[in-house]
Design a protein that fits this description.
single chain; 244 residues; Jelly Rolls; Phage tail protein beta-alpha-beta fold; 3 domains; seven-stranded antiparallel β-sheet
Length: 244
């Protein structure tokens, strides 16, 4: 009768909502506890806090945390989906290798080392040694050592000199904050640390940070924020920490 039909309808609708929510959770991992759906089809990927070194067709590749790479161009090129990686081309060989990121093509010369980062809207290509040609749309630039190009929208947004020691810090086991908002630093820490650090106050998010944080012990940063800014620390299950 009517009551049975209503129960069946509620059960069906409830199951549909649960399935939809489950599909969304599988596609999006707010705590970074599993890879995004796009990363699951990558040829190479790293988990939270993991780094990996590879030799791909003579190119030395160092993958940072939560990074995915795919072979493209018939296997002769590499595409960085999300994350950060360094590519070192030997002085001889591996001619013509290309790295693709966010619609741009990077062609490093022999003997070149470049750092490529694509984390959300933060897309940068930094030349650490040698030279690399970056093409996006109708614009092409040649990057010399110490020069970085930022990509924005569908264009090369800017090209400028940067401090390469900060760019290279993750390879040495450090995360360097150079007068950055606390919220920005925490976002980067969350890429390396299981669980999540959440800042609950807008004023605390805006505080500027100058720090050198060891990747092997990121929780020392939580102690730093508590001691320097007087933040209240609440530890929750699953590695979630509230700072307020």
């Amino acid at each position: 009768p009517r009551s049975r039909v209503n129960r069946t309808r509620r059960a069906f609708l409830g199951g549909a909502v649960a399935a939809a929510a489950g599909g969304w959770l599988m596609a999006r991992s707010p705590l970074g506890m599993w890879p995004e759906m796009d990363a699951l089809g990558a040829d190479f990927r790293t988990a939270t806090g993991e780094q990996r070194t590879l030799d791909i067709q003579g190119v030395a590749v160092a993958m940072g945390t939560r990074t995915d790479l795919r072979r493209v161009d018939g296997g002769t090129g590499l595409q960085l989906g999300q994350g950060e990686a360094q590519f070192s081309v030997p002085a001889r060989g591996s001619a013509g290798v290309a790295i693709h990121v966010d619609g741009a093509r990077v062609t490093p010369a022999a003997g070149t080392r470049i750092n490529v980062r694509c984390v959300g809207a933060d897309v940068r290509v930094t030349c650490l040694a040698g030279t690399a040609t970056l093409t996006r749309g109708t614009r092409t630039v040649t990057l010399q050592p110490g020069w970085q190009a930022r990509l924005g929208g569908d264009r090369i947004a800017s090209v400028a000199q940067v401090a390469t020691d900060r760019i290279d810090a993750w390879r040495q086991g450090w995360l360097v904050a150079d007068d950055q908002p606390l919220a920005e630093v925490v976002d980067e820490i969350n890429r390396y640390r299981p669980g999540r650090i959440v800042i609950t106050g807008a004023a605390l998010q805006a505080r500027r940070v100058q720090a050198r944080i060891p990747l092997r012990d990121l929780d020392t940063f939580i102690d730093l924020v508590r001691d320097v800014y007087g933040a209240r620390v609440v530890n929750m299950p699953g590695g979630v920490v509230l700072l307020g």
